[in-house]
Amino acid sequence: MVQAWFMDTETTDQRLEHHRNPPEYVSLDDLYAKTGVEYFKINVDGPQADEALEKIRKERGYSYEDQITCSKECLPDYETKLKNFFTEHLHTDEEIRLVMDGSGYFDVRDGEEQWIRISVVRGDMIIIPSGIYHRFTLDSKNFITAKRYFIGEPVWLPYNRPADDMECRQQYVKRLSEGFK
Fold first, then answer.
1. Distance CA 90, CA 169 (A)
2. pLDDT tens-digit profile of 79-99?
3. Distance between CA atoms of residues 11 and 162, nearest Å
C-alpha cells in the first residue's frame, strides 16, 4: 500500500525517505484533497484482466501505453536522467504511472508549497494531475519498472519551474482552490 508524508525541506540525498521527525503521514483522502493526486491498487500479475485498471483506462481514454525501466543497467545516461526527473516541473497532461516492479518516490507540492513524498511499489498506480509541480526519484534500491499511460500518442514534455503562466498551471491552481471533484 502506498504511503505519503510531508518532507523535510532540506534533501541532501534525493533517494532517502526524508520525512519530518516525527513523520507526518498523509492519508490518501488528504493527498487527493491537498494535491489532486489519485491512487489505485492494481493487480500487476494480470493487468489486462484487472477490472480496476480496465475501468480507469476506459473512463479516462488512455489508448497508449509503454513501459520504462529506470536502473543503472537499463537507462542510458542514468545519473543525468535521474537529475532531470528530480528537477521540479509540470506537464500539460496527467502523468500516469503503474509500478510493475521495484520502487521509487514521487514528490508533489501541496497548496501551501510543502513537499509531499509518495512512496510507490509494485501494484501502485498514481495519477498526477496536469499543472502540478512535481518530481520523481528512485529510492535506495535504484530500480523501478513502470507502465506509462497516455491519451493518444504520448506527449511527455516537462516544463521546469517556474511555469506559472501556463494554462494547465492556472487551471490546476483554480481546481486546487475550488477543491478536487
1. 8
2. 999 999 999 999 999 999 999
3. 20
